[in-house]
Structure formats: structure tokens, C-alpha cells
Amino acid sequence: MTGGRAKLMELLRGAGLEVVGDGRIEEVLPPRAAWRPLLPGGAKPTAAVRGNLAAELNAQWHRLAVDNRVIGEDGVFLVDVAGNWTGCAPRRWTRVRLAGRWDLAGVLGERPGQPEFVTLSKDGNTLIRVTTEEDEVRFFVLDRIGERQEAAAQAAAQETPREREAAWAALLRGPGPSKRLRELWAHGLALNPAAPDDLRARLLGRSHFLLWHPLPTAAVEAAMVHPEWKMRQLLAEAQPNLTVEQWARLILGEQESRHRWILTMLAADRRAELTDAAYEQLAADPSARVREEAARLPGLPVRILTALATDAAPSVRASACRRAWPHLGTPARHELLDDPSGRVRIEALLQYHREHPMPRAVLDTVELQDRAVETCLLERGLAEYLVHHGDPPRRRSLAGNPHLAPELVSRLAQDPDESVRSAVATRSDLTEEERAGIRFDFDPDLHHHPLDWVVALHEDSDAMRRLAASSHPLVRRSVARARRLPPDVVELLAGDEDRVVQLFLAESCDDAPADMLLRVWRWWTGSLSTPDRPHGHPNFPRRDLLGYADDPSPRMRRLALDDPRSTVELVERFSRDGDEEVRCRAAADPLLMPGSAVRLLDDPHERVRNAAARHPGLPARVLIRLLRDADTAQAAAQHPALPIPVMEQMLQRIQPPADAAPGP
To answer: Were both Cys, which of 96, 338, 494, 566 would link to 17 (CB 3.0–4.6 Å)?
Structure first.
């Protein structure tokens, strides 16, 4: 619970209200709509009381609440209090009932006797809004809210071309937008697919969303020379459209060594390729930290890598040692083994003993013993001792050692510790018969990384056929991560008893079959690293989906709108569906009528409201209202039908004066 929400709960309890329910989103109009004067359209108050006598105000509210059935038979109703109780999160109704002693008018406002709150019946059909104006407290009772919403939406959707033109002209008249509104406009325009490239480039420094999406060359170039360091750092961290040459110029353009170090580290983490000239310069950089990260760059030429293994700084020699070792001659290797730096000697020992058996005396002196046990060639006696006498974590490390003799692997496959047996079961040198003979437990709900040795075989069709029939779910899951697979392998994995195998096939494999994608769509509601899969998969069915229009599953029901034969009538029906996800899909459908899109702007769920705010049929005056409201401004600024001149005017308001400091 946020701090603001906790304070609201405290306020409600102080007013004598008992909070009930689980805090879920109520399937009624959202509180923000209840505060707007759009429903009654200039309605007169039902009652008004002068003065600030709390007892009289409470009695007036209670009479209206009982007479209009705002208070249910169980005493429960919904309440919202004026003020910012949720920070940036969408506000929601709170279910309450009156306690033995209560005082709404004296507590639910900025000052005692000056109440500002709204109460709503559980069915969302009737509300009472209580507000203070000067020395008078006014009570507004609104019934038939659903009908009023529908009528107001249909009326708002009517707009002539002249009215639309006048509405756009009025957008930026009057006082300028607040700082918060300018920020939301910037974020929305950065995500707007219709925004021109040059306009998006001018948003650099105004929205962090910009750099996480592929940018055109001109925008990338502008970000590379942006005066704000944080902007250049985020470019290296997030931007997918950086060329080899741009990476090089971005890093080498930094004058501060700390900045070059950070950008080189990000390039290494992202496995970015640089130019040969850039590799040369980074390997000769005055900063040891830069050279240390340069040694991690995947495209670093061997001659430079081996030179870094003899660098003056121990940290650089240690960083370069592992990858440079296979390319070093005997004298250079001995120098690293006798290096004055303990860190370098350890790295060299770990490489040396991949080819030469490590005795127990050396293992006892190596600080990184687990790495040695897991990766080094051990003397037979040492390996046997660890198999029989090592503690379970040490035996688990040994179980993955690629140099372990087959008979010792077999011994560990019978180890009394389940975690050791599980580690053995994922070895690459086992036959599938041997793997099937190992007794291990596998929790299908835990997160498991794909096995590297299986991933390395993704291009080998015969290996994929063999491993797709493995008894080990993690092996099959790792096969399913391949981008392309033979048809018979796809068929086998598509029917796998482990649903995660099917899930990974849907996410990663371009050959995943349509029927399996449909099955996965029915049950998978989480997120994948590949956007919008399985639904966005090229093989996902797009025809003959109308039969799902009456499916009891909302996920299947919404697919009917993907069918080319979908109709306006179906979209309109789905815009009133009882499920949030179905309404959200309908809100984004071009066939949805403008009046229904306006109605969905007051949907209980934010996702639906945001989808409706981007509907192409929204009238201009409605869009302008959304752009002026901090709750909806970002979604509205993403609207694809925003005229380019309007975007330009918004950008002028977003950008600070020339003498002002640039924004974050």
C-alpha cells in the first residue's frame, strides 16, 4: 500500500468508516469521472446547506444516501475523497460501511464542515457528490449513471469539420501547460507512431521512452552529441539501432575517462561490435578501467587481446587472460602464471589446469576453488576424493566439470544428494539413455536458463532430433529455444507434456505451428521476452476466428476481432463485454463507433481507458480534454491522428525557453 493510500485509509477510519473488501478495481465508472461535471451537464444541486454544522450535513447526506439506495442492504457503499491520495497511480473507489459513530462532513474535506467527497452505490448506478462552495455545501444526486454516460458519450462524439478545426485551434490558447503536463506530452509524443522523425529527434532529453525504441539515424546522431551525459549513457544502454561506427564514435567521443569506461562496459555487456580503429584506441586508453572493459569486447582482434594480457595494469591482465590464453605462447603463459598479482595468477592457473591436471596442493591454495572444481582438469586422486568426500556444494560443482572421467560421472549420478544428481543430469556428454537413468527432481515452476551446450547445437538438425526426445525437460526446453527447427522436431515439441516447452517454442521458433500457438494463447497470460508472442507470431491464425465470439474464455473471445470478417456489431458488443481484456481489444478496433470509444474513456480499468484514448475516431474536442488532463495526457499524446501542426505546437510548449536549463 502506498503512503498516500495508507493516509486515505487512516482518514476514512477517522471519519467512522469501516473499510471492507480487498481493494479491487470496482466495475463502475472510475472516481475521476465522478468528479467531472460531464454526467449531468451543469446539473443543479439536489440540496444545499449553508453553514458548517457537521451534524446537519451528515444528516442530509444520510437521508439522500438511504432514499436513493446509495447505501446497500448490507450497509456497504463506495467512497472517494478529494485530494491526491495515490500519487501517480490511478485512483480507485474504497468499499466502506458506516461504523457506530461516524462523521463524514467533519472529516472528509480539507477543513471540518467543508466536505469534498463522492459516494457511489455498489452497482455504480447512483452517486452523491458533496462539495463546498464558499459558505454553502452542495449535494448532487445522480441516478441512471450508465444511461447518462451513454448519452453524454454519444453527444460528445458528434463533431462537424468546422468544430474539429476550431477545437484544434483552441488547444494551446490560454495559460501554458504545467510542468507535469509537458512531461506527459513528451512521453506520449515519443511513443506516437505518427510523430515525424525530426520531431522525435527534438524530444531528446525530454522523454526517456524515446531511446528504448528503434530510432532513425538522424535521431541517433543527435543523441550521440547531446549535451547531457545521462542521455548519451541511456543511448548506449537501451537503443537497438546503433551501428558499429556509431558505437565507436559514441565511446571515443567522451573526454572523461569515467564516461568512456561506462560506455565500454555497456558495449561489452550488449556484445556490441566496434571498428578496428576503436579497438586500437580503447586498448591504448590511459584509463586501466577502460582497457579492462575493452578486453571483454567480443570482437576484439586476437593481436590486441594478447597485447592486453601483458598490460601494465593487473586488472587488465586478469580481464584478458581467459580469452587470450589459447592464443598465447609458452613464455607468455608462464609470465601470467608467475605474475606478481594474485588475481592474475588465479586466472592463469584456472586456464593452465584446463590442460594440465591440478593436484590437491594447488586446489587448496586457489582462492576460487569452486571455479576450479567446476572447470579444471583435476588429478584422478583429487577427483575421486571430491566425489566421495566433498561436501554437497563441492560435489554439485564437480558434477558439471567437463573433464571428469565417465566412471566418476556415473558415481555422481547415484549421489545421495538430489541437487548433485540434478547437475549430472544436464551434462552434455551423457547419452539420452544415461540421462534417463538418473533419478532427479525437476520443479517445472522454477525459472531455468537454457543449457548453453544445447543452444550451441541449435544449427545441428540431427542433434536437435536426438535432444528433442530427451527425458529431461530442461534439455527439451533448451531445444525449443532454437529459431529454426526441422518439421519433425517441431511436431514433437508442439505436443510436449511440459507446457513450458510449448511456450518456449511459441516464443523463439519461427516454425511453431498454428494449432499449438492457439493452445498456448488460451492458457498463457504472462509476458515473454519476444513482444506479443504467441499472438504476434507470424504463424498465429488470423482467419476462421469468429467461432470464438461466444467462447467462455475472454482470451479466446477477443480473438474473434482479429478475423477479417469481424463486424461493427461484434466490436460494439465486445465494447460492453464483462471482461477487461475483451473491452481493451474492442477499444483499439478501428470499427468501434466514436460514441463507444468516448464511453470507454470512463471504463473502470486504466488499460481500457488508454486504448480508447488512442482510438482513431475520437473527436478533437474530446482529445483536447484528454490532453489537458494529467490522468490521460500521455495516452492522448500517442494518438495517431494528432495533426502534425498540433504536434509541433505541443513540442514548442514542451521545450523550455532558450535561457532555461535543459530538462532531465
So the answer is: 96
